[in-house]
Amino acid sequence: MSILNMPLIIQDTAAVEGDMGMMWMLISGILVFFMQAGFFLVESGMTDSKNAVNIAMKNFLDIAVGSLAFWFIGYSLMYGADMGGGFFHWGGFTFSQGAADLFFQTVFAATAATIVSGAVAGRTKYTTYAIFSIVLTAFIYPIAGGWEWNGGWLNNTDGIMPAEFIDFAGSSIVHSVGGWAALVAAWMVGPRIGKFLDGKPVEMHGHNQMYATLGVFILWLGWFGFNGGSQLAWGGDDAVAASQVVLVTNLAASAGALGALLLTWFKNGKPNLGMTLNGSLAGLVSITAGCGNMSEGGAVLAGLIGGILVVFAIGFVEKNLKIDDAVGAISVHGICGAWGTLVIGLWGIDGDAGIGIFNGGGAAQLGAQAIGVLAYAAWAIGLSFIFLFIMKKTIGLRVTEAEEIAGLDWTEHGSIAYPGKRQREIEE
């Protein structure tokens, strides 16, 4: 082969890898889109059957309205030009850097909104939820995302950052932002009727654990696209890196499920399905930030601790904070999202080099991760409180007691998921 043909071969290879990268992002985005079905099944399965239609409507709203809001303004706020010290970005309405990237980032925004849905299930006005979903996907999430994924202030080591903040696929940017917003929403909406008796939480069983189990399997599958697609490329070293990301994602999810299973078995004498399901999700959230900066053993340990942490966190939110989180979203996404971000500073890696304090990396990375965790918590909690407080004082957050008892399916949507004697009486 003539050496004169080498530049053409290099160009052809680059073109093929570019096309493959675009295909990988689209396939990954489709997997993340499918996660909406998983969120619906988990939330509906873990809650009362009289609210299943309402939950379906919320999940459809998140992807439909969220897609339009993020396309019109959110993507621009996230990936537009820097307008002020890496804190704010803007590129104009309907700004885009390519269809594949826009679609991939859109389904991430919808995921952040859906996290809130589970925490406030069974007692929130649909109108209120719709408005807040738009606010989250159009403003709260994208502005925060630009801080890291668009070279924002969290990457500026000339400022307060001791090292560049790392959040590969969104433990903080997606999950903690959604989780902290869910914390504020659940607190402001208040607990479901009957959740607390004499100040003590009462277990409110979901109506279909098989739905919840199927939903978690769908989420687990979708997470391979969530994390793997965040490589944003395919071919050569990128293909190897994305494959490794998928591998450590699976390992962390497995370890999280096992950690929650064994802990509940030890505490209660029997392994608990609901906690095991949340344990696997906790493992997934725990590896999302570090899936590109974690060894296989490190991923197992991060996921295992996440699965154990979520069990204690769910109990703390209910018993100590007196907050009713219908599906454990605050603990899974908020608390384990923070853990998944911090763990990079403990035993994270960058190629063959250690960047965590336990593998010779020093404290700089842990400091950067901690600053990011606190910044995202403050942003999501502060902005969520402002918007929800305004809505509480205007249109209200919660349905009436009679509407909650009857079920949101009928009172909010005039529809029933499971027709039966009681539902027919309500309809009459």
From TrEMBL:
It is found in: Cell membrane; Membrane. It is a multi-pass membrane protein. The chain crosses the membrane at residues 20-42, 63-82, 102-122, 129-149, 169-189, 210-226, 246-266, 273-292, 298-317, 329-349, 369-390. GO terms for cellular component: plasma membrane. Keywords: Ammonia transport, Membrane, Transmembrane, Transmembrane helix, Transport. Residues 23-418 form the Ammonium transporter AmtB-like domain. One of its GO terms (molecular function) is ammonium channel activity. One of its GO terms (biological process) is ammonium homeostasis. It comes from Algibacter amylolyticus. InterPro entries: Ammonium/urea_transptr, Ammonium_transpt, Ammonium_transpt_CS, NH4_transpt_AmtB-like_dom. NCBIfam families: amt. Belongs to the ammonia transporter channel (TC 1.A.11.2) family. Coiled coil: none annotated. It comes from the Bacteria. This is Ammonium transporter. SUPFAM superfamilies: Ammonium transporter. The lineage of its organism: Bacteria, Pseudomonadati, Bacteroidota, Flavobacteriia, Flavobacteriales. The keyword Transmembrane applies.
